[in-house]
Amino acid sequence: MVKKPPIKKVFKKSLIITPLYTQKLLETANYGYEMFGAKVSDNFISKVENMVMALPKMPYIHPKNRFIKSSEKKEYRNILVEKYAVLYSVTQSTIRVITIYHTSINPKTIENFR
Predict the structure, then answer these.
(1) 8 A C-beta contact, residue 89 and residue 24
(2) Is position 83 within any domain?
């Protein structure tokens, strides 16, 4: 009789969306609407939201944030979408979506988002 390998249980992490992220995403959408029109803005926001909602499946796929130091218990990572980055943190049990920002901002500002 051939033994089957044990089945690995995959635990999804909880996804927490902060009010700051929601506010900044709305500001980004409004800016895109004014500058580029509804279709471009809507497509960009859809792309961002789809990537954020996929985080519980693969939270470590995106690169670490190089301006905020990660620790053993918490990593800071970025989803890069065009000229914007979504900052999020990953712990053992949660994924916390912190904010979205334009990648041209002063890196010292990013440290304040923690």
Answers:
(1) no
(2) yes
- And the tokens for 1? 């009789």
Quick one: 94 exposed, middle or buried, by C-beta within 10 A (0-12, 13-18, 19+)?
middle
Assess whether pLDDT exceeds 90 at residue 110: no
What residues are paired with 76 via a beta bridge? 89
Give the Cα-Cα-Cα angle 44, 48, 49 (nearest 5 degrees). Answer: 115
Give the C-alpha separation, 91 to 18, whole Å.
Answer: 15
> Distance between CA 44 and CA 34 in Å, rounded?
13
Contact 64, 83 (CB under 8 A): no
CATH of the domain at 101: 3.30.2310.20
Whole-structure pTM value: 0.86
